[in-house]
Amino acid sequence: MQVTETLNDGLKRGYKVVVSATDIAAKIEIELDDLSKKVSLPGFRPGKAPKGVLKQRYGQSVMGDVLQRAVQDSSSQAILERGLKPAMQPQIEVVSFAEGKDLEYNLAIEVLPEIAPVDFKSLELVRLKAEPGEAEIAKALDSLARSQKQTKKVEEKRAAKSGDTLVIDFEGFLDGVPFNGGKGSDHALELGSNQFVKGFEDQLIGKQAGDKCDVNIVFPEQYVNDTLAGKPATFKVTIKELREAIPLVQDDEFAKSLGFDDLETLKKAVKDQLGRELARHARAKLKRQLLDKLADAHSFPVPPGMVEAEFAQIWSQVEEERKRGYEDPEHKGKTEDAIKAEYRTISERRVRLGLLLAEIGRVNNVQVAQEEVNRALADQARRYPGQEREIVELYRKNPEALAQLRAPIFEDKVIDFIVELAKVTEKEVSSEELTKEVEAA
Questions:
Q1: Looking at the DSSP assignment, which residues form a beta bridge with residue 239?
Q2: Where are the domains of the chain?
Q3: End-to-end CA distance of the chain, in Å?
Q4: What is the pLDDT of residues 282-303, one digit of tens each?
Q5: What pTM was estimated for this model as a whole?
Q6: Could you tell me which CATH class the domain 277-440 is placed in?
Q7: Contact 1, 20 (CB under 8 A)
């Protein structure tokens, strides 16, 4: 095998590889010898068919197998001998290959960069800390009570008001023609819930049971259904029943209806839940702060192919969101090229941080235990009630899917490793301040 370097530019390497015709012929002979022991041909005893006959019948198949193996073996050897660390699957272009001739191909590789992490003890971080207050607990209890709200029919004749529930039949029309998905019967609509398109519920306030009316609205420009987006429509509505909320008292009986011993036990559970959410917010803020500092402290080159693959994934998500009618407000007024340039910058940052965290984890022997992957798999399966077994089997048969479950666990463990070494100070903030900090990030 002859290997000639043709490119050495940054992280890109190129080689011309030549495998001699003699080596190829030897591999073909070995393949034919192995094949003769496996096949039976009419007129010949097993293992006694002449190589000429085997070559005539199976030559093309053997040549294809030999070519594939010769390329795999020689490229792996070339990479190993040069101590290269490919960032992605190497690209191979066969230049020439024919019976009795040398095999020649071009090998293109993007290698991983040399990474020298900063001294983590030099990093200064601020961990925000917040506890849920009485107001937040009360708000959460009110929300919980609303989710358990029951209604009763209003017997007297009165106008509907915000907070009431109307049982309605409705049908929507565009230019006098009914449209698909615009019809419903016995639908319970809470006025003020913003369940329907803006303006719909407001026009039903003041109506009474038994009324029939037209509700005129304009669908939003960014509506999920492109055929309706930005268009005016008329809904013919029949109000069949008016219902009002039954007051729900937050007492021990309310708590027991939710499976708790008493109201105090419920309040403690709500407080604990809010505390866990705030802790997650605080960790998310700390992680973002750390990643920003790591990104600022490292400027090593990244493989262009990895950046392009990351960009392609991000851009496909952007286009998918556009199909659903969503456009990032920050993109307003920007050209397509400017938006793509921003996402390429984001892609490069993601790749650089990913390579950095992977190297930190490798050097410091950060491991993900199988039990941790199993827990993540169980959590994923629980998201699909009734299909848990199928989801588990799907992941176990798909190494790439399992790797996607493992990746965030590994990343979090590397983050924890760095935080343990960094200088971290705690700062007490209110729950509102913490939430705003995370939303801003």
A1: 168
A2: 2-110, 149-245, 277-440
A3: 54
A4: 999 999 999 999 999 999 999 9
A5: 0.75
A6: mainly alpha
A7: yes
